[in-house]
Amino acid sequence: MRSCTSPKRLNAVKVILAVLLVTCAALVPPGAMLAEGVVPPATTSSSTQGSTPGQAAPETETITLSKEEAELLRTFLEVQTLLMEYHTEELTFHQLYEGAIRGMVDALNDRYSQHFTVEELESWEADLEGEYGGLGVTLDLVDARITVINTFPGSPAEAAGLKAGDVLLS
To answer: What are the CA-CA distances from residue 6 to residues 12, 19, 112, 115, 121 (Å)?
Structure first.
């Protein structure tokens, strides 16, 4: 079992939790907010909007936002609605929310704050654990020639006999 106490991992977890919180706040449907900043549960019509015949309507939840957050979220949802209706390509909510989350994190201008998809997080964690794939060689341009800087122990490059200083000709 791995420990979750390294500073890098704790910071990554904090960023992920913050992004999840913002994402949850952004999942409120357009027009659902009141001026006071309270989002009431969705009301269902006789056609049970959002559910298929024979199934119950999806569960709803009420959240409370400050007036400032409610106004910002209202603007966000208006832009989302316009994009979904008028963009030349078909968009998904996932695309828009992923882009919005990346934009929020990028707006920090902080190279230590990043948003990861599940796949990106798995790759990042593998990098932290020292797992890699490939030839197992570090290359650099030296005097305009591709030169081996080092090989990793047990790598295919080491097994092929590559050594630091070797120059790749073709």
So the answer is: 10, 20, 15, 18, 16
